[in-house]
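User: Hi! I have a protein structure encoded as tokens and I'd like to know what sequence might fold into it. I'm fairly new to this, so please keep things simple.
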């Protein structure tokens, strides 16, 4: 069986994905990615990535002079750091499978992962609504952010262009053809970032709870035809299939890279993202199948549903 089809299996003995890194702590995520980078190249200078990470943290927290704090609760800092960590793991797995990238490309790709959703951030003068209003154009805005700020972390003009191209692969409204780039390594990194973005969010233990926030982002951003929080939860069943189809061109590589990473780093010969996604998928199917029940009554993690109600009222 191919693990990355998100089919549920029992977790292997020992650690689960959420046990490995304290992903609620940005500094822990950065430390892990730096440790992964040193496994690839012990002498590598990770300062550009660390500087970009710190800058993105300041932006999302509202401590950057040019930008408002993040006010989208699905596409938040945690979403970005989850994608960043997944990307670091995939890059390490590629190295272990002799499909590695040169140091500058790795740095560019990791910075691109940090910037991939900055398009939801509003500039200081933009005080109308929330960043969710940019849902349909956030990828283009994120690409522009990369071009605007990449030089602050030592990226050349060419590297900023390449980073922007890598971010473009995360645009879910864009159909990906068999060959997207004249540079195979940039295409692979772009497809890996698309995978990291999706795997990172869907493997989050609070993914189902956070979908309630996503509905309200989509409502403001005029994305899709979702009628309610409940409607989005039901339609997420089909989203799993959509993601599997979208990732098919890179799924074999992504699964192999993740499995190699976890085996090398943690001694676990499994792609733990697939297992976590399978857990979430099975639980969603279970709560949707309860006759006459509101599936939201079975989403309890981290008091997220209470936060949704306090912000948006009864759903």
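Assistant: Happy to help. Inverse folding works backwards from shape to sequence: for each of the 315 positions I chose a residue that suits the local structure. Here it is:
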């Amino acid at each position: 069986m191919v693990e990355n089809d998100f089919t549920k299996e029992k977790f292997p003995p020992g650690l689960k994905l959420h046990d490995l890194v304290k992903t609620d702590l940005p500094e822990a995520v950065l430390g892990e990615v730096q440790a992964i980078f040193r496994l690839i190249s012990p002498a590598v200078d990770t300062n550009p990535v660390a500087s970009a990470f710190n800058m993105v943290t300041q932006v999302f927290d509202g401590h950057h002079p040019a930008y408002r704090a993040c006010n989208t609760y699905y596409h938040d800092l945690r979403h970005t750091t989850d994608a960043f960590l997944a990307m670091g793991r995939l890059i390490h797995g590629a190295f272990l499978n002799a499909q590695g990238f040169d140091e500058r490309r790795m740095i560019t790709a990791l910075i691109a992962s940090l910037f991939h959703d900055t398009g939801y951030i509003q500039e200081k003068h933009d005080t109308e609504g929330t960043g969710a209003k940019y849902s349909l154009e956030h990828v283009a805005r994120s690409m522009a952010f990369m071009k605007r700020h990449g030089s602050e972390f030592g990226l050349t003009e060419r590297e900023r262009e390449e980073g922007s191209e890598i971010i473009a692969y995360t645009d879910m409204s864009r159909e990906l053809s068999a060959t997207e780039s004249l540079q195979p390594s940039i295409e692979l990194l772009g497809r890996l970032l698309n995978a990291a973005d999706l795997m990172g969010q869907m493997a989050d233990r609070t993914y189902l709870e956070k979908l309630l926030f996503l509905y309200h982002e989509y409502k403001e951003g005029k994305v899709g035809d979702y009628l309610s929080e409940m409607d989005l939860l039901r339609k997420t069943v089909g989203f799993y299939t959509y993601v599997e189809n979208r990732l098919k061109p890179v799924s074999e590589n992504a699964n192999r890279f993740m499995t190699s990473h976890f085996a090398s780093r943690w001694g676990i010969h499994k792609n733990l993202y697939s297992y976590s996604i399978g857990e979430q998928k099975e639980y969603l199917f279970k709560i949707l199948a309860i006759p006459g029940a509101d599936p939201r009554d079975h989403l309890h993690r981290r008091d997220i549903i209470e936060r949704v109600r306090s912000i948006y009222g009864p759903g």
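A useful reference point when you look it over: The domain at 3-312 is CATH 1.10.1300 (Catalytic domain of cyclic nucleotide phosphodiesterase 4b2b). Feel free to ask if any position seems puzzling.
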